[in-house]
Amino acid sequence: MANLNQGADPAALPILPCLDYGRNVVAYVARCGQSAGERFYKCRNHNPSGGGCNFYKWQQAYADHLASPCPAAPPLAQIEPG
């Protein structure tokens, strides 16, 4: 993964709500290990083993996620009433 001093300013990435839980994604910086100093993003409700959200992405994966088109909504004819 690229060093934070390279490329775009990491603070420039927008913080969006998690698609599953609707709460804003939170940005963190790893403090130890080989990823120390690298930024990552996760849902405030991140706890996949406890039934929570599994949204967790390193900076480049989050940037790619933001750049990807949103999933298309189903045609109205496919939406069941009620």
UniProtKB/TrEMBL annotation:
The keyword Zinc-finger applies. The keyword Lyase does not apply. Coiled coil: none annotated. Keywords: Metal-binding, Zinc, Zinc-finger. GO terms for molecular function: zinc ion binding. It comes from the Eukaryota. Signal peptide: none annotated. Residues 18-62 form the GRF-type domain. InterPro entries: Znf_GRF. This is GRF-type domain-containing protein. It comes from Triticum urartu (Red wild einkorn). The lineage of its organism: Eukaryota, Viridiplantae, Streptophyta, Embryophyta, Tracheophyta.
